[in-house]
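Sequence in, structure out.
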Amino acid sequence: MHERVDLLKSQGKRVIDFSIAISHFPAPAQVRAAVRTALKEPLLPYTAVGGLPDLRGRLAAKLQAENRIEAAARHVIVTNGAKQALYQSLFVMADPGDTVIVLRPHWPAYVATAQLLGLNIVLADQPDVIDAAFLDGLPRARVLIVNNPHNPTGKVYMPAELACIRAWLRSRGTACIVDESYEKLVFDGEHHSLAACPDWEALGIVTIFSASQGYAMMGWRAGFACVPHAWMKAMEALQGPITAAVPALTQVAAGAAFAIGAVPDLLADYRARRDLVVDMFAPVPWIAMAAPASGPYLWGDVSRLTNDTAAFAETLIDEYRVAIMPGEALGCPGFIRIGYIADDEATLRRGVAAVIALGNRLAGARDTAPPARCPSVRAAD
């Protein structure tokens, strides 16, 4: 859908893009200043595949101070965004044919990456609260993928839920990948890391981080993973022939970004936008949309209107020039995902008004249509 937006824009058409989250904020001033300073250096050499030693040490210190993860530099690998960390983790942790559990709705990359690696994917509907009963109902698996905070629902896992997951991992011998890319975008509650326990290495927990959303650095492709040391050499050996090290300038940017910590101005802006859009949808009868506890997305239930949200999205971009992500892409037909952090407020309002206009049109057509009848059968002569 985002590629459709780019194509339409290249043709001179005005399009509002809610299909992904592209922040209207610039990258932090500290990041831009650090990169400007680095550009004054006469050389930008290759670095170690896993990242600059100093950067890995500083990221380990961030993990200890902010995430309460007992990590050292030897546990950190710097990657080109979260997707590379995900691919390399799954490649090392599982073999073709192994089962990986993905909780639905899900970031599409989890399923796409598992398919690429020939894994057996089991989709399980994520409950409102993760407890022992839910986990015990899951099948045997090599890897469980957890997204906390969650894309697209905005769920933030509670400490009791994380404790249940850790106990389940111990009892099953299942490893876990935890995507914590939205750790800095929590509006309500507090973020806790699954790996904040003494035996995270023994449990086989890989934790993935990204600067893309938390620091408005989508195009910088700055991410890293905290990995049990037993798997680190394998992940570095894999990264070597794929991309080698992350670009030196990106590593400089990553170091500056993750040193910032909290981002109160960005968070306050997103909270106000979240509340604006939720309020706009509140009187609309065919959609249910709660204010998410975190993240750059809104997740709307439109099943009262249609379960074919792919068709809804196609009509919206074709006729209204507004792009959204249909729920089918995230494993849940009947839902839509809206990235609400792009452009200015006036554009945001116009885009939401277009979604409402299309839904009202379809709801009106449905309500006024004559009742469906079985095909008539002509009596035999």
